[in-house]
Structures are given as structure tokens and as C-alpha cells.
Specification:
By secondary structure, this protein is mainly alpha-helical. The chain is built from 16 helices and no strands.
Length: 270
């Protein structure tokens, strides 16, 4: 894999010359590391970094929206072309803070649409895009997540959680509380979900997200985090118990809070 400095040397001239913009697409998918288990995250991050400024030509922004809308039929999972919407969504998130108001609205509409994409890599890009936004200013994330929550599907809820489970933004305890409150609302909804819903792939995706993110939040705000875990440990619900137990067994909790973990595990195992 190329070093970060090598990537910068190669892509900087492409960005600096508008006549080369069409070459960006080829450069990205040729260096995507796809097909394969892991896309080129270093290149994607460096690509997004070029958009962390207000002085981006409109032609480049137009390319991002074009790539972000490449369909699953054109760019299926693990196809090199899938790397284009992945990078585009990251870049849109990175640019949000610096964008004009009308572009900000378009970016949020694009991210909202991509949250329900069937491709897991695209959904990951959305979560990372929101993290770029939250690192600069959490308020847009708070506003849109709150606004969208009521009508959100399981894939969208999983994206909310994945975006929030980002340690750099969780130094702010108010953000941790927001994250715990959203987790609480999601768990309540899952408890009342019917058996048919629990058989879906979307339920599985959300469940897997919940199996790690709660521990991230609890590690940052132990009193409230462990209380949430304890509250749901009392439910004799197999799916909920699996989520709570998976979080309790995470090293970030077992090393620092072994007694608290032990006590809640005993409740689950009763």
C-alpha cells in the first residue's frame, strides 16, 4: 500500500489543474484496493481532506454528487467503481462545514439517502461523513438526527449510532448523553419489535451496531452508561440480552470496570 506522502504527491497535481479533473475518477478506482476485504481508506481520507476548505471549484462538487449517486447496479459491493461513491460521500461530509447554505442542504439530502443504501461500504462512508461534520460542529448532526429519528428505519438508526460512536467527539459529555438517549430510544423500539422484523437483514445490521457502540458511550460516561446497560439487562429478551452482553465483554469496559461488568452479567445470566 502506498504511503500517505506518496498519495499526496500523486493527487495534488490532479486537483490543482481543472483540466485533470476527469482523471480523478480513474485514479480513485484504480487505487481502490477493490475487489478485496479492505478498501484504500488512506487514499479516501486524503481525498476527503482536499474538500476541507471553502475554496473548492463547483465542478469538483458536481463530480462528488455525480459519484455519490452511482447505483448498486453500476457499482456493486466490492467492485472498484463502488469506491467512487464511497469517496464522494466522505468528501461531502468533509466539505459540509465550509459549504454554502444551499450546498449544505444538498449534502444532508445526499447523506440521508445513502444511509439506506444496501451496500455496507456506502453506509460506512455516511457514518464517517457525519463524523467529519461532527468534529467541526456537532449541532447540525444533533439537529438532523433528531429531525430524522421518528421516521427512521433500522439502517438509518444504525448509521446514527455508528456516527456517534466516535471517540474524538465524545469528549463532550453532552454529546455522550445525546448518544445514550438515542440508544435508549432504539432499544425501547427493538423490545417492542415483532418476530418478523427481527428476522430481517436490517434488524441484524442494527443489532450488530448496538453490540459495540453502547460500550463506547459507557466508557466515556460510566455512571449513565452502565445504568443504561443495567436497565436492559433486566429484560428477558434474547436479542436485547445478546446486545448488552456483547458490550459488557468489550475490553474498554472489562479492564476498567470489572466489578460493574460482573454485576450486570449476573443479572443477564440469572
Amino acid at each position: 500500500m502506498k504511503e500517505s506522502t506518496d498519495i499526496m504527491k500523486e493527487i495534488t497535481p490532479i486537483f490543482n489543474n481543472p483540466e485533470n479533473y476527469a482523471k480523478i475518477e480513474e485514479y480513485l478506482y484504480m487505487n481502490s484496493n477493490l475487489p478485496g476485504p479492505r478498501g484504500n481508506l488512506t487514499l479516501a481520507d486524503k481525498f476527503a481532506g482536499f474538500f476541507k476548505t471553502a475554496s473548492v471549484r463547483q465542478e469538483l462538487i458536481d463530480y462528488l454528487f455525480l459519484w455519490a449517486n452511482i447505483s448498486e447496479e453500476t457499482a456493486p459491493v466490492n467492485d472498484p467503481i463502488e469506491y467512487l461513491p464511497f469517496c464522494a460521500i466522505l468528501a461531502l461530509g468533509a466539505h459540509y462545514y465550509y459549504a454554502e447554505d444551499n450546498t449544505k442542504l444538498k449534502i444532508m439530502e445526499q447523506l440521508k439517502k445513502a444511509m439506506s443504501d444496501k451496500r455496507w461500504r456506502i453506509r460506512e462512508a455516511v457514518a464517517m461523513g457525519f463524523q467529519y461534520i461532527a468534529e467541526m460542529d456537532f449541532e447540525p448532526v444533533r439537529f438532523y438526527f433528531t429531525r430524522w429519528y421518528t421516521d427512521s428505519n433500522y439502517l438509518e438508526k444504525r448509521t446514527f449510532l455508528a456516527a456517534l460512536a466516535h471517540p474524538p467527539i465524545l469528549k463532550d459529555k453532552d454529546i455522550v448523553r445525546f448518544s445514550l438517549n438515542m440508544s435508549d430510544a432504539i432499544l425501547k423500539e427493538l423490545i417492542s419489535s415483532g418476530d418478523e422484523n427481527r428476522k430481517t437483514e436490517e434488524f441484524s445490521v442494527l443489532s450488530k451496531g448496538l453490540q459495540y457502540c453502547l460500550s463506547v458511550f459507557a466508557a466515556e460516561l460510566p455512571e449513565e452508561g452502565f445504568q443504561l446497560l443495567k436497565n436492559y439487562a433486566d429484560y428477558k429478551d434474547k436479542a436485547i440480552n445478546k446486545i448488552i452482553k456483547a458490550n459488557l465483554l468489550k475490553t474498554r469496559l472489562t479492564k476498567k470496570y470489572p466489578q460493574r461488568v460482573k454485576e450486570i452479567l449476573e443479572v443477564i445470566n440469572e
